[in-house]
DNA sequence: TTCCTTTCGTTGTAAAAACAACGTACTTTT
DNA sequence: AAAAGTACGTTGTTTTTACAACGAAAGGAA
């Protein structure tokens, strides 16, 4: 109990706020703590919630069910982590996953409305930033997943990492299985494709350290050259029809083209 | 000029706010209007912005450049549409697209900080809702794209639409090419797969009206049966390692498993 | 109606991926 | 140090997809 606010201090929502201030804040926000015995459901598919949750003790497990009825663990939640904030931020959004207590757990629930009304600018900024930041990550993932071949998926991902790290040689935060899962491809097939890409002189790698040999110049200090050769094909039928990353930037989700 | 606030009325950010109130609001928010001649750049890849934009006149075009340097049109923006709100909501987020004026255009720019400070609860709620809602859509798309085969992608998507419409028979908002683009598969291959699924008795369709024949009961009135057969395989290595929809629900983007 | 365009399904072929199985190298445990 | 476990690459086979090309059907415009 004494550690509770120290754990909350680690939550992305409260980044930069001291434990003692969090304590006051939670009072103003009418935060509610609930206990969940091991094996119980914290949230169920089909639920609607107006509160976001922060795990303060124990461990949770996010489980989905796909169209065939197979259940898959999406992720594990550890103390200090925020969850359900997206569903809580959309009116009447139906939760599409189950959240189960993997161990005896405690969750601090905060109503999003309370944050907006009484949380203060800093907290609201934080919440908005967390959700918008997740948005960027999802978009990036879609950009990779939209590629048709494993090679293209890999190049899309590796190019992104290269640009982010600002160097042709960089480390990735995945092992092979993790990367294959992230790109939704078969591990061994991906491994084979990596080999072929190395053979073709596109990349080099050892363990999780990759080097990408692009065509354009790449100044280690300044990032990708602005003169990187471009194949501008805006007016091709394919380009005009492509909805590759629809909604990445604006709000066109109508599905019409 | 006189129509300006009527156009803004249609913006998702101001849903439910009258044109006259918007006029006052924009003043308080120190909104700035800028003109962009046809062919000029509204935003460029690599930029950072602290303002979201609303197009009030003209037309914009969102263009990306992929790892190979090919430029693709992601979407077109019409008057009343919001854009760049996600990048503007994340501190120092680097914009990954170009925004070009397709015609002579006017954009109303609003600083996100102004919205948070002076926009009032309603506007902040709206902004948060828009971004969180987009988040849900992106997650859904990732769920479909993560499927390995075209058949699975289709079933994932069609099952979602079925549940959403609450009926085995439903219309989808895509034509074939649109659906293929959304699922990032080849149109003709998808068409062929749809035929096979029809042959196999999984689905039926005519034009954009589909019927899905699942195994479980499906009560037209009440939605999917809670007793839908489940194949719970939580403890399989595959399930435990799958990062299929990582970040859908919580904030595990570390990439580590 | 006739012509033209768009949409959709079909087919064959070449390319790519999934899958399963296995060997090796590297780590961790005992 | 030996044993056990894990991560990674490789290979061969089967399945699936992309791609290109084509024809039929539907819808619009002249």
Any descriptors?
homodimer, 257 residues, alpha+beta, 4-stranded antiparallel β-sheet, 9 helices, 37% helix, DNA-binding
Notes on the structure:
The structure is a homodimer of 257-residue chains. With 257 residues, chain A is α+β, with helices and mostly antiparallel strands. The first copy, chain A, is 37% helix and 23% strand. In chain A, the strands form four sheets. The first copy, chain A, has a four-stranded antiparallel beta sheet with strand order 1-8-3-6. In chain A, a hairpin with a 4-residue loop joins strand 4 and strand 5. The longest helix of chain A is centred in the middle third of the chain and has 26 residues. The interface between A and B is large, with 101 and 100 residues. The structure holds a DNA duplex (30 and 30 nucleotides).
Helix- and strand-based class of chain A? alpha+beta
N-to-C SSE string of chain A, H for helix and E for strand:
HHEEEEEEHEEHHHEHHEEEEEH
Give the mean pLDDT of chain A. 85
Provide the gyration radius of chain A in Å. 22 Å
Number of strands of chain A: 14
Q: What's the overall geometry of chain A?
A: elongated
Helix proportion range of chain A: 25-40%
Q: State the end-to-end distance of chain A.
A: 55 Å
Question: Unreliable runs of chain A, pLDDT <50, ≥5 residues?
Answer: 219-248, 252-257
**Oligomer category:** homodimer
Q: Which percent band covers the strand fraction of chain A? A: 15-25%
Q: How do the strands of the widest beta sheet of chain A line up side by side?
A: 1-8-3-6
Query: Largest sheet of chain A at a glance?
Result: 4 strands, antiparallel
**Count of individual helical segments of chain A:** 9
Question: Which pair of chains has the greatest number of interface residues, and how are they split between the two chains?
Answer: A-B, 101 and 100 residues
């Amino acid at each position: 109990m004494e550690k509770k606010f120290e754990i909350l201090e680690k939550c992305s929502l409260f980044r930069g706020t001291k434990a003692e201030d969090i304590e006051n804040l939670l009072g103003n926000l009418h935060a509610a703590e609930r206990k969940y015995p091991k094996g119980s459901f914290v949230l169920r598919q089909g639920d609607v919630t107006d509160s976001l949750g922060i795990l303060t003790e124990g461990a949770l497990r996010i489980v989905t069910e796909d169209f065939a009825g197979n259940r898959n663990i999406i992720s594990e939640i550890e103390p200090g982590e925020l969850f359900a904030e997206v569903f809580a931020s959309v009116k009447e959004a139906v939760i599409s996953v189950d959240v189960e207590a993997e161990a005896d757990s405690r969750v601090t629930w905060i109503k999003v409305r309370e944050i907006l009304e009484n949380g203060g600018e800093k907290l609201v900024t934080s919440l908005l930033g967390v959700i918008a930041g997740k948005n960027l990550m999802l978009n990036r993932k879609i950009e990779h997943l939209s590629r048709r071949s494993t090679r293209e998926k890999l190049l899309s991902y590796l190019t992104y990492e290269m640009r982010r790290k600002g160097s042709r040689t960089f480390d990735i935060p995945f092992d092979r299985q993790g990367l294959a899962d992230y790109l939704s491809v078969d591990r061994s097939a991906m491994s084979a494709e990596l080999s072929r890409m190395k053979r073709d002189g596109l990349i080099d790698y050892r363990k999780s350290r990759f080097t990408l040999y692009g065509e354009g110049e790449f100044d280690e200090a300044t990032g990708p050259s602005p003169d990187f050769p471009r194949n501008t094909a805006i007016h091709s039928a394919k380009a005009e029809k492509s909805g590759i990353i629809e909604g990445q930037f604006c709000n066109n989700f109508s599905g019409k083209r």
